[in-house]
Amino acid sequence: MIYRTMNIWEGSESDMRTDATLCVYAPDNSPEIEINRRNPAVVILPGGGYEWLSDREAEPIALALAGDGICAFVLRYSVAPNRYPTQLLEVSRAVWLIRENAEAWHVDENNISVMGFSAGGHLAASLGVFWKEPFICEKLSMREGQNRPNKLILSYAVITSDTSYAHRGSFYSLVGEDKSEEQYEAVSVERFVSADTPPAFIWHTFSDAAVPVENALTFAHALSEAGVPFELHIYPQGPHGLSLCDCRTSANAITLSPYAAGWFDACKNWIKDFKTGS
């Protein structure tokens, strides 16, 4: 396995500098298997309400993916008091960095997914809808499209700023408290879905009390309206923050959910088998 941790601005010509790191878990090639193989890649964005980053939604996910031949990359992005668009620039740089190193890390650069949990799901969706924004290329000295993920994976993701369904704490940490509704709506990602948004794998639980299931349904509806394919799984029971739903990531018995654990195998199949054509 290729394993290393690096600051994402290593080798960057941009003047952007933060403490964000990318941890690489990439299955290595061998002449005994297939020396020139390229693997799907997944950038993992842990949750934590843009206040902190969950370990339960970081390395355990990477190891589970890498064990099935998928290159995994954990991005430890900036949280409060760092504000938007710092995190969007960081995940843009991470995807670009993976494309730059696709040969060395044995990555199929046409199959790069961004997988986010909770607030990390909001960041994944943000990249999905905002990747073409001109300020990103200008700030990063990047050619357009280098940061575009081929697929999105949204795990009980924060999506909407709508006060009926929003996890407002995530929005307060991202853009600050006491802002206007227009400022929160500017990062309410379902409003910006277009035909340029990558296909998505979405899963959530109906009983999620922290981030209501309407977040997943709202984003899926927006994708449908834009003609973007998606796979949607709504499990009837399970609290927020299930991660892998089993003993590998359980904080206690509450975060064990054998039924909802099916999301992971379904997702791995989707990563490998669903063709986006881009």
Describe the structure.
The protein is of the alpha/beta class and 278 residues long. It has a single domain (2-273), classed as Alpha/Beta hydrolase fold, catalytic domain (Rossmann fold). Helices cover 29% and strands 19% of the residues. It is built from 8 helices and 8 strands. The protein has helices at 59-66, 86-100, 119-130, 134-140, 168-175, 181-185, 214-226, 262-273, and strands at residues 2-7, 21-26, 39-45, 71-76, 107-117, 151-155, 200-205, 230-235. The protein has an 8-stranded mixed β-sheet with strand order 1-2-4-3-5-6-7-8, with helices on both faces. Helix 2 crosses helix 3. The radius of gyration is 17 Å and the shape is globular.
Summarize this, please?
The protein has helices at about 60-65, 85-100, 120-130, 135-140, 170-175, 180-185, 215-225, 260-275, and strands spanning about 1-5, 20-25, 40-45, 70-75, 105-115, 150-155, 200-205, 230-235. It is of the alpha/beta class.
Topology of helices and strands:
Elements: E1 2-7, E2 21-26, E3 39-45, H1 59-66, E4 71-76, H2 86-100, E5 107-117, H3 119-130, H4 134-140, E6 151-155, H5 168-175, H6 181-185, E7 200-205, H7 214-226, E8 230-235, H8 262-273
Parallel strand pairs: 3-4, 3-5, 5-6, 6-7, 7-8
Antiparallel strand pairs: 1-2, 2-4
Helix pairs in contact: 2-3
